[in-house]
Structure formats: structure tokens, C-alpha cells
């Protein structure tokens, strides 16, 4: 039996590198050598004890790698050893109500990926040296882009899904609340869609980067009321689209107030803690605003993300604060949870 290394959460604030059995591709499977894994906010919350999972647990889902071996009955014209790939690790069973109605990002099997990956512990598995997956989970990356860039396919795909939900149109006034990694990816995609982008952010360094990446206007909500400032910028109408990328419920309440008539409001981030907010149902009735969420990318979103990265239309290099070797995984998580940093990428 061959073994490989995996970073395993063993408790809150503790992650250890353990040896586990290296998977062997079966019929219809591909073996991928994982080369980079970006540390998502969700895994950071596991590390801090905010999100609860059963320990031991193998996290990691923002991943890129290279095909190392191809099993039987896999199209070897399409999938070749040495090809760089990103992996959409979420399950899509193809059988449940959501998969069959075009919402494979809401598949009933999401959360049970460990079973499919044949890992000894539950989890998404990206912090392992190898994964075996069916080719339906693979998305080609241009072989000239760095693995750390390819690892951002998944967060970019999440943002593409959000922008599609928001139906951003040419000339729309789009307010993005929060200029962390996900907020800044929203800035980049909203600009590609032809929007005027207004960013609400309190941190001066993040404000600066938002402008560098294309934001047209910046509002500091600690200094000015964002509702009134957006009205000033839109001749009193309010925004066409408002996207909240922060986990703060009180901010979610403000998000709704920023929208103008027929506005589209996206609650992008999960909420921690999840407090109820006040919304006027009569305002929704009279304004025809649409309030919705956005969670996880579907297959099309992921495909578009890898195309945008491979063609260099989107370059998220400035959103990577540091690349940390696999052997320093705990240090990587400490850096990832530092609010001064953007994405930390683990190099396997």
C-alpha cells in the first residue's frame, strides 16, 4: 500500500500532517496530484472553532493540480497526464431534484464528498497530496498559469455565480460591501460586466486595492452613511445591485436599504453569528426589489472561472498574500486568519 500526506484537522486550532493511504484510480477515475490549495474562509472558521465539523477532518476545496494517472474508460484524448486542472470538489449526483432542475450547486449530496473521494476521514480532501475524481469534476487550466492562480478557480466561480444571480447589466450602479478577497473578485467581475462599481469598506489598504482593481467610488461607512452616499451618487435612486460579502447581519440589513427600486440584493456571505434582520415587506412590495442569496458555484460557473483565468482576462495575483509550504500548515492557517491578509495558498 502506498501512502500520501494529508493535513488533518484534529481539534480547534490544531491541524496535523498525517500519512494516509494513497488512492488508486479505478475505472472512470483520474488521479490528480494536488499542487496548491488556497485556505478559504470556511476552513479558517473550522480552525477557529466557528464552524463545527467532526474531527478528524480533511479540509481544502480551493485546489489545483496536475493529472498524474488516468484510469480505464477515461477519454485519453481529452484528459492527458501532465495537464493542469482545477477540481470542483462539490458533489453533483445528477439524480436529485436540484441537479435535475439546473441547480447542481444545491445538490442533496453536498457535504458527503469524503465518501466519494474514498478518504479515511470526512472532508473535502483538498489538503491531501492526491485525489481521485471522475473527469466530470476536472476543469482544464492553461499550462502556463501558476498553480496558486489555478487554486482560485473555485472562489472566482462562486463570484461568477453571485454576479449571474444579480443579473448585472451594462451601466448598472453596483455596490459591493466589503473588500476582502470575495469582495474584490466581485469588483473585477462587475467591471467586466460593464458596471459602475461602488465599494463600501472601512480599511484604508483594502480601499486602495479596490480602486486599483477597478472600483469607481469608495465609501467608508464609519465616516459617511452608505445609504445616503449611494443616493447622492445615483440621483437619489439607490443602487441597481447591492452585494454583501461580509458575515455581519447588521450590515445585511443596510444592504437592503441601499438598493433602489427594482434593485437586486445578494446576500453572498454566510452569517456568523446569524442574527435576524428587519426588512419592510411593504418596501419590497412597492419597490419590486429582489432579495436573494448566492451559495457555491454550479458547473457552468466553474467552467467560466477556469476560462477567465486561463485566458488571463482575470488575474487575481494581488489577492494572494503569501504562498506557504505544506509542512508549515498550522502557520499557514494562522496567517490566513489574520485580517491583514488576503488569500494564503498552501503549496503541496
UniProtKB/TrEMBL annotation:
Q: Where are the transmembrane segments?
A: none
- Per the record, a Pfam family? ADH_zinc_N
Sorted alphabetically, the keyword list is:
Metal-binding, Oxidoreductase, Zinc
Enoyl reductase (ER) domain residues are 10-346
Do you know which InterPro entries this protein is assigned to?
A: ADH-like_C, ADH-like_N, ADH_Zn_CS, ER, GroES-like_sf, NAD(P)-bd_dom_sf, Zn_alcohol_dh
Q: Which GO terms describe its molecular function?
A: oxidoreductase activity; zinc ion binding
| Family (UniProt) | Belongs to the zinc-containing alcohol dehydrogenase family.
Identify the PANTHER family for this entry: L-THREONINE 3-DEHYDROGENASE
Q: What is this protein called?
A: Zn-dependent alcohol dehydrogenase
Q: Which organism is it from?
A: Caldanaerobacter subterraneus
Amino acid at each position: 500500500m502506498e501512502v500520501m500526506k494529508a493535513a488533518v484537522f484534529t481539534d480547534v486550532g490544531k491541524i496535523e500532517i498525517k500519512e494516509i493511504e494513497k488512492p488508486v484510480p479505478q475505472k472512470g477515475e483520474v488521479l490528480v496530484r494536488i499542487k496548491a490549495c488556497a485556505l478559504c474562509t470556511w476552513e479558517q472558521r473550522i480552525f477557529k472553532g466557528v464552524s463545527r465539523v467532526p474531527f478528524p477532518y480533511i479540509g481544502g476545496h480551493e485546489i489545483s493540480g496536475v493529472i498524474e494517472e488516468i484510469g480505464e474508460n477515461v477519454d485519453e484524448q481529452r484528459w492527458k497526464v501532465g495537464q493542469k486542472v482545477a477540481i470542483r470538489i462539490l458533489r453533483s449526483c445528477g439524480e436529485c431534484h436540484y441537479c435535475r432542475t439546473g441547480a447542481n450547486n444545491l445538490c442533496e449530496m453536498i457535504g458527503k464528498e469524503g465518501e466519494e473521494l474514498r478518504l479515511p476521514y470526512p472532508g473535502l480532501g483538498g489538503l491531501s497530496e492526491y485525489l481521485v475524481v471522475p473527469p466530470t469534476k476536472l476543469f482544464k487550466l492553461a499550462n502556463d498559469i501558476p498553480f496558486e492562480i489555478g487554486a482560485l478557480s473555485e472562489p472566482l466561480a462562486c463570484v461568477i455565480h453571485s454576479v449571474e444571480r444579480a443579473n448585472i447589466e451594462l451601466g448598472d450602479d453596483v455596490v459591493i460591501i466589503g473588500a476582502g478577497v470575495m469582495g474584490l473578485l466581485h469588483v473585477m467581475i462587475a467591471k467586466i460586466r460593464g458596471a459602475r462599481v461602488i465599494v463600501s469598506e472601512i480599511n484604508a489598504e483594502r480601499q486602495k486595492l479596490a480602486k486599483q482593481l477597478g472600483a469607481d467610488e469608495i465609501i467608508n461607512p464609519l465616516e459617511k452613511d452608505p445609504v445616503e452616499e449611494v443616493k447622492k451618487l445615483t440621483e437619489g435612486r439607490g443602487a441597481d445591485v447591492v452585494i454583501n460579502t461580509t458575515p455581519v447581519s447588521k450590515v445585511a440589513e443596510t444592504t437592503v436599504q441601499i438598493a433602489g427600486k427594482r434593485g437586486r440584493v445578494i446576500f453572498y456571505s454566510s452569517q456568523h453569528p446569524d442574527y435576524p434582520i428587519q426588512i419592510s415587506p411593504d418596501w419590497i412590495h412597492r419597490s419590486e426589489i429582489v432579495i436573494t442569496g448566492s451559495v457555491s458555484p454550479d458547473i457552468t460557473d466553474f467552467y467560466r472561472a477556469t476560462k477567465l483565468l486561463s485566458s488571463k482576462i482575470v488575474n487575481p495575483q494581488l489577492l494572494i498574500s503569501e504562498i506557504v509550504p505544506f509542512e508549515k500548515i498550522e502557520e499557514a492557517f494562522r496567517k490566513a486568519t489574520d485580517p491583514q491578509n488576503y488569500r494564503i495558498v498552501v503549496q503541496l
